[in-house]
Structure formats: C-alpha cells, structure tokens
C-alpha cells in the first residue's frame, strides 16, 4: 500500500492547511489536484516527513510517520517543482550527490548517476554544467535525481513546467516508462491533460479538504450526470441570462450552452425554465467530459457546500 492516512491534519497557528484527510491508496499512478492553496504541497511535504503532522496518523509504503521517516526517504524519489542545484555542478556530479544523500555508497551513486542520466536522455550532456542547461534538460535532471536510488515511489511536482509541447510529451512518455517498470507515481500538476494521460486515479483537495478520491473514469462518469449541454433556436444568449438569473452556472461553448447542476438544481428545472420562458430547445444532452470539466464541476459543487466565512 502506498499510503494509509487517518484523519491527517496540519495547522500553521490558526490556519488549517489539511483538515482531517482519510484515505488508503494502493500501488499505481495517482494524480494530486487542487487549486492554489488547496494543500497539495503541504500533503506532499508531510508524507515525505518534512513537516510534522498536527493530528492523525499516516504510513507511507508501510512505514509509519514520524518513526520511520528515514526509511521512507530511502524508498521515495522526489522531483521538486523549483530548481534546486548548484549551477557550477555537472549533471553527473549532482545526481550522484543526490544518490549519496539517500545513503548509497559513493561508487554506487556515481555508477547509478551515469545510468539514470542515460535513461532520461542526457547521457551525452552528463559532464556539462547545470547552469548552461535548457529548461527541458533541467527537468530531466530533476527526474534523474528522483530515480537514481531506485525508489519504489516517486513524487513528481509539476514535471512539465515550462516545457514546450514536444518536451512535455517526451516527459510524459518518460513518466509512463517509469510506471511500466513497477515504480508508483504521484503526479501533482495544474495541467489536467498530463494527469489524465499518466494517472489511473486521483486525489482532489480544496481548502485543505479531501473532496474526491477514486479513478478518473469514475469521476467523469459521476460528473457527467451534473453537466448538460443545451442548444436553442437562436436564443442562447437570452436563455443563458434567464438561467443565470435563476442561479444556474452557465458557460457558452461554441453554439451550445453548458450548464453545471448543483443540488438542489435538476434537469427538470432547466426544462421548466425553457418552457416558462418560451425557449425553443434544439439539443439537450449530457456533456462530453474532459477531466478539466469534471474537476471544475466538483470544485463548483464544493464551493456551494462550503459554509459562509
């Protein structure tokens, strides 16, 4: 099991960054999603043993926090969002250093650094100084240092940050290959396409609360029930204003209106509004959902449930 979390809490003074998160995650690939300030970074740092929990209990790969923090760090690789290296170091020296920090003997760390840099596509650049690397090369070095010690699990924090479309696809292919080698992946990204391509399941946080955990397919199927697309006979703008006045969340999507239903709103309520306002509806159907649409729908629902400040 990757994680076993029971009522995990983290506070900074009176501010609650994590609010009683409980979940169990088996091995595999997991996306970690949420808006800024949702608690993603706090959760990652807590699971790495870098932050002490304020309450609850947690284990990672069967090791308990905080008692087994050293064992956890030996078993996990972490690719940070921000660059963290000395520009004057060569790639191979840096990756070997990071391997040594996990407890590997110096000679083994150096040997593995060469292997890992070849694996991520930087074999020919491994003796170059990091300060002269492009953004794409720096991202690959960060992935290499996360893999050098042969971890069972890697945390990848915004691994495609700053990459062009080709570089992003190449990074995602690399991550896919990491998965195929039996290494579990936790991917934190604001690019939902990346999560959808790499991950089978996802954790979604908002304001420190767990608002969803499960497979991406199940989330999309569930959310599809609450998002409908409507096309009228040249009355889209008029109907959109009518629905907004009745409290519906409406977006223009090309020739159609996309409406998110939040309890107690219903499909019947939409139809009643069309009938009452003499709107001619040409098309009415569940929306075809991307992960992004499902994500926004869930956040919208959570916002409506949240108590007023």
UniProtKB/TrEMBL annotation:
Signal peptide: none annotated. SMART domains: AAA (SM00382). Gene3D superfamilies: P-loop containing nucleotide triphosphate hydrolases (3.40.50.300). It comes from the Bacteria. The keyword Transferase does not apply. GO terms for molecular function: ATP binding; ATP hydrolysis activity. Keywords: ATP-binding, Nucleotide-binding, Transport. The keyword S-adenosyl-L-methionine does not apply. CDD domains: ABC_DR_subfamily_A. InterPro entries: AAA+_ATPase, ABC_transporter-like_ATP-bd, P-loop_NTPase. PROSITE patterns: ABC_TRANSPORTER_2. Belongs to the ABC transporter superfamily. This is Uncharacterized protein. It comes from Bradymonas sediminis.
């Amino acid at each position: 099991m990757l994680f076993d979390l029971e009522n995990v809490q983290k506070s900074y003074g009176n501010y609650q960054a994590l609010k009683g998160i409980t979940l169990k995650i088996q091995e595999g690939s997991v996306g970690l999603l949420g808006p800024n300030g949702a608690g993603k970074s706090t959760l990652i740092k807590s699971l790495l043993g870098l932050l002490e929990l304020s309450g609850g209990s947690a284990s990672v790969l069967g090791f308990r926090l905080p008692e087994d923090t050293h064992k956890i760090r030996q078993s996990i690789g972490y690719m940070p969002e921000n660059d963290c290296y000395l520009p004057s170091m060569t790639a191979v020296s840096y990756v070997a250093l990071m391997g040594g920090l996990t407890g590997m003997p110096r000679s083994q760390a150096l040997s593995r650094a060469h292997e890992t840099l070849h694996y991520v596509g930087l074999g020919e650049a491994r003796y170059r100084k990091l300060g002269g690397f492009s953004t794409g090369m720096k991202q690959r070095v960060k992935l290499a240092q996360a893999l050098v010690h042969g971890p069972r699990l890697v945390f990848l924090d915004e691994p495609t940050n700053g990459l062009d479309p080709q570089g992003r696809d190449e990074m995602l292919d690399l991550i896919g290959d990491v998965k195929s080698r039996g290494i579990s992946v936790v991917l934190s990204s604001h690019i939902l396409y990346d999560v959808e391509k790499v991950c089978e399941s996802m954790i979604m946080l908002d304001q420190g609360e767990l608002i969803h955990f499960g497979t991406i397919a199940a989330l999309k199927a569930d959310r599809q029930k609450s998002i409908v697309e409507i096309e009228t006979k040249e009355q889209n703008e008029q109907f959109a204003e009518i629905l907004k006045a009745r409290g519906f969340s409406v977006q223009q999507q090309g020739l159609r209106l996309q409406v998110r239903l939040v309890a107690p709103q219903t499909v019947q309520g939409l139809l009643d509004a069309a009938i009452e306002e003499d709107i001619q509806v040409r098309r009415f159907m569940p929306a075809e959902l991307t992960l992004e649409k499902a994500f926004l729908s869930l956040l919208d629902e959570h916002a409506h449930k949240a108590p007023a400040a």
